[in-house]
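thread from #wetlab-drylab

HS: before we spend reagent money on co-crystallization trials with iron/sulfur cluster, can we at least see a predicted complex? here's what I'd submit
DV: go for it
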Amino acid sequence: MQTWFGKKASGGSPPPSPRKDRSGLRVGIPKVLNVWSTSQFWVGFLRDLGIESENIVFSSDTSEEQGREFGKGRGTVDCCYPVKSISGHYGELIFGQKKKINIILSPMIYSLPSFMRGHVSETLACTRVMAGPENIKAGFMKESDVFADNGIKYASPFLSMAEPEVVPKQMYDCLKDIFGVDLAECEHAVEAGYRELRAFNKKMRDASREIMAWCARENKPCVLVLGRPYHMDPGIGHEIESDLQAHGYPIVWLQYLPIDDDLMNWIFGEEIKAKKIRSALDISDVWTSSNSSNTNEILWGAKVAARFPWITCVLRLSSYECGMDQPTYTPTQKIVEAAGTLFFKFGDLDSTKPAGSIRIRIETIVHYLAKYSDQIIQKKLVLLPPDCPLLAGKEKTLAAVASNEK
Ligand code: SF4
């Protein structure tokens, strides 16, 4: 079992007092779906309520063993694998802990605090994601209430995370009896949660920028992963990008691409001036029904990959039975390939890692990367203004970057 990020919350005003002693409560969070992109919010929120870091327990990465051992016989009707796999996570938190969990917290996330908010129509979660907790819960309630039988309280707040102003009330409505919280405490804890999430996202974007800056300075290619946040789960995305990284190609994920003004202006500035798009995060030129948060981000990532010279290859990951991804396959491929960037899709990912076929495809990708990357970089460089902001501090060497990462 994994307990993440053991540091104390910092900054912000002091918590409302007096508050209940919750230091003995253990809270389990199924590490599934959009918890992968909001985990730091949950850490910040719970710590602010007085839950000790070591008592915030995320379930393990998804695995076939987890599903077999803890989710067997609990399946419900959903056929999309990222949702189906949640049974194993619930079961692990109920049956697989040395130290008992008191509360399972499994949010129904309706909308996401995406960096694209304000530039797109909406930032909603996939409906299967939103309803996933209720769906999976049913498998643990069909004969008896397995949560109650094991002395566990089940909390599943319905959350519009894209609208921070309504989240405290949504939290309060669901958690008031379970955690014994009042509205003021919820407001304070929600603020702490968003603060932690923002800080984490910035750290990750800065790290991606360093990787991309190194590629620019050394004139070396990197690979962009276009997938949903939960494809970072080794049991959902099957670590395909790690297999490629082992061949020496740096990897960046679209969720953590840098969005600094200087870089965005370099990549999209000419198109903004020409009024082809309203901003660097506008995707209306390629995707008009911009309601789904993760889909929007995938389309935007494809646009970045098409333009950023040192991203010479895109790995497109998609899960079995994903209805949300189906309409995006052709547009993302066409966008990415428009200026010659390599595009490889791994679709229909399910519970089993097809290791043999992945290995053969990785060898193919490595071959194409080695053969065509220089050409792709040159071809894309001539389409952009000469003053790449990543080359401004050219005196920084690879060693400096490496030491920053320590
Ligand atoms: S976006 Fe696709 S993979 Fe994700 S929950 Fe929805 S249908 Fe399943």
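DV: The longest strand covers residues 311-319.
HS: ok that's useful, forwarding to the group
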